[in-house]
Amino acid sequence: KNLNRIWLDGIFNTSKLEIQIPQIKLNIFASATEASVGYKKNQSDFIQTEDVLSTIVNLDTLKVEYDNSISLNLSKLKLRSNTALNSGDNQSAPITAHVSCQKLQTQINANRWLAAEGIKMSAGTKSIKTTPKTEAACIIKTDRFQYLDTKEQNAVSLNNSEFIAELHPGENTKWDIKGL
Predict the structure, then answer these.
(1) How far is 56 from 7, CA to CA, in rounded Å?
(2) Of 122, 103, 179, 117, which is closest to residue 145 (Cα–Cα)?
(3) 79, 98 Cβ separation under 8 angstroms
(4) How far apart are CA 102 and CA 117, in angstroms?
(5) Are residues 167 and 177 in contact, defined by beta-carbon separation less than 8 angstroms?
(6) I want to staple 66 with a disulfide (CB 3.0 to 4.6 A). Which of 21, 70, 141, 164 is the partner?
(7) What are the tens digits of pLDDT across the range 123-167?
């Protein structure tokens, strides 16, 4: 609600970033990392203000290992998030997030694998002008998606798939899902 009090502007660049937290068995490695934050001219129809607080992160490679049970590898990750100044009328500020990733590979425990290529995701939430309620939307596209669980003997393989959902406040429920 108080995003109008945040004024940031900066750039972070590094060829290699390593984070190790032995207490929780977390290791993170990123290469060719670039991040920027600051106010930019809005280019979105979803957020209807002139300026937005924008964060952009680009990573060539991201590798995360947690507790010897979860590993995650991403390549060519791009993340962009925008939010607008709050108007001060008890409505939540609109937020959008856009993520793209060339390749994703992950393993959970010894029996679950997930691999995907050409991933694009966009999501956003904003207040409805006539009420203090919020609506949201999400789009996920993948060129290839594969999931395997050897313990439960489940597998999913999708090519050129798209998932679209709109969430609107319901009268008798928290959310009504439209457009699945």
Answers:
(1) 16
(2) 117
(3) yes
(4) 5
(5) yes
(6) 70
(7) 988 776 666 677 888 899 999 999 999 999 999 999 999 988 887
